[in-house]
Design brief:
Rossmann fold, six-stranded parallel β-sheet, 15% strand, globular, 343 residues, alpha/beta
Length: 343
C-alpha cells in the first residue's frame, strides 16, 4: 500500500501529526509512506523511520508575486510535483491540513481513497471537494493530536501508543553542550528555557512580562534561565535578557532545528506560548508551562501536559501575570525534583 500524508505546515502542526506516521508504520509495516510538507517544515521529518519519503513543496513561494522567470520556475516546480505524485501511484492520501491548498495536493496524488475531515471540522470547508472519505473525530478527541489520529481509522488503524519521532544530531548535541558550558549552564541543572516567539503577534506573551519572569526565576527560584529565539525575535530576546553581566538570563545563540531540539532536551522546564518550540518540547517529554490567550489549550496545548497550561482570563496574552507564570514554573520544578528523588 502506498500512502501519502499531506500536512504542509506549521512546525507545531507537523509535530502534532507525527503520531499518524508512527501509527501507520506500526500497523502497516510493509507500506510505503510519503509525507508532503512545506520545505521549511521538512526539517522536522528528517530521519523519521516511519517514512519512506519526504516530498518538500514551497507553496509559500508559489503564492508570492513573481517575475516572468519566477512564474516559469513555479510552473516547472508544479509540473514536476504532479509528475512525481502520479509516478508514486498512491493508493491512499490523508489530508491532515483541511485547507484548499492541501486538498488540491491531495487530489493531485490521484489516490483512489482520499481521506480528510468532514466540512464542519475543516478550517476551509471547500477542502471536502478534494476528498472522498470524510471523518468526524469522536467527541473524546479533544486534542488536535487525537483528531489527526482519527483519520487513520478508515484504514483499520488505531494507535496503540502516541509516538513522536523528532530528529537528533550528535554534532548538534555536542555543540549545545559546548555553548551551555561556556555560558556556565549545566544540562538539566534547573535550567528554565524561555521562548518568547510565536507565529502570530496575539499569541506572544509581552517581552516585558518574560523579562520580569526571568528576573524572578534567577533571583527568587535560583535557577538558570536561557532565552531562545527564532527569525525576527532577537529584539524581544535581548529585551528579556537585558545585561547578561548582571547575572540575569542568558541569550541563546542562533540555533538550527536540531540545536533547538538539543536545548529543549536539556531544559528542566520550557515556558512558551502556542508555538512550535513548545510542542517540540512536549513531544520530547520535557516539562512545559504553556501560555495561552486566543487559542485553545484543550485543542492545542502541549500534548500530555495540558493541565499545566495557563489560559488568559480574557483571551489576551498580556492578561497572564508574571506572578501566575512564576508560580506555575516553580510548581513544575518542585514536582520534577520530588519525582527525581522518588526514583
Amino acid at each position: 500500500m502506498n500512502i501519502a500524508l499531506v500536512k504542509l505546515s506549521s512546525i507545531g502542526d507537523v509535530v502534532h501529526a507525527l503520531p499518524v506516521a508512527a501509527a501507520l508504520r506500526a500497523a502497516l509495516p510493509q507500506a510505503r509512506i510519503a509525507w508532503i510538507v512545506e520545505r521549511r517544515e521538512a526539517a522536522v521529518l528528517r530521519g523519521n523511520a516511519a517514512l519512506s519519503e519526504v516530498v518538500p513543496v514551497d507553496t509559500r513561494g508559489w503564492r508570492r508575486p513573481r517575475s516572468p522567470l519566477g512564474v516559469a520556475e513555479t510552473t516547472g516546480a508544479l509540473v514536476a510535483l504532479g509528475r512525481h505524485l502520479r509516478a508514486s501511484r498512491f493508493d491512499v492520501a490523508i489530508d491532515l491540513q483541511g485547507l484548499v491548498k492541501s486538498g488540491v495536493i491531495t487530489a493531485a496524488t490521484r489516490a483512489p481513497l482520499r481521506i480528510g475531515f468532514a466540512a464542519s471540522q475543516c478550517r476551509e470547508s471547500l477542502n471536502t471537494l478534494f476528498t472522498n472519505r470524510r471523518v468526524t473525530p469522536p467527541p473524546t478527541a479533544h486534542h488536535v493530536v487525537d483528531r489527526y489520529l482519527s483519520l487513520v481509522e478508515p484504514l483499520g488503524v488505531r494507535a496503540a501508543a502516541v509516538e513522536f519521532s523528532l530528529p537528533t544530531s550528535e554534532a548538534a548535541e555536542e555543540r549545545v553542550d559546548g555553548v551551555l558550558g561556556r555560558k556556565g549552564l549545566r544540562s538539566r541543572d534547573r535550567l528554565v528555557v524561555l521562548n518568547p516567539g510565536a507565529g502570530r503577534p496575539d499569541k506572544r506573551w509581552p517581552a516585558v512580562h518574560f523579562r520580569g519572569l526571568a528576573r524572578r526565576l534567577v533571583d527568587d527560584a535560583k535557577v538558570s534561565v536561557l532565552v531562545t529565539w527564532g527569525p525576527h525575535e532577537l529584539g524581544d530576546a535581548r529585551t528579556i535578557v537585558g545585561d547578561e553581566t548582571a547575572g540575569r538570563a542568558v541569550l541563546a545563540p542562533p540555533t538550527s532545528l536540531e540545536e533547538l531540539l538539543a536545548v529543549l532536551r536539556r531544559a528542566s522546564v520550557v515556558v512558551a506560548g502556542d508555538t512550535g518550540p513548545l510542542h517540540m518540547a512536549a513531544a520530547l517529554g520535557t516539562p512545559c508551562v504553556g501560555l495561552y490567550g486566543p487559542t485553545s489549550a484543550v485543542r492545542n496545548g502541549p500534548y500530555g501536559q495540558v493541565p499545566r497550561t495557563l489560559t488568559s482570563p480574557n483571551g489576551t496574552m498580556a492578561a497572564l501575570t508574571v506572578d501566575a507564570v512564576f508560580r506555575a514554573v516553580v510548581d513544575v520544578l518542585e514536582h520534577e525534583r520530588s519525582a527525581a528523588r522518588a526514583r
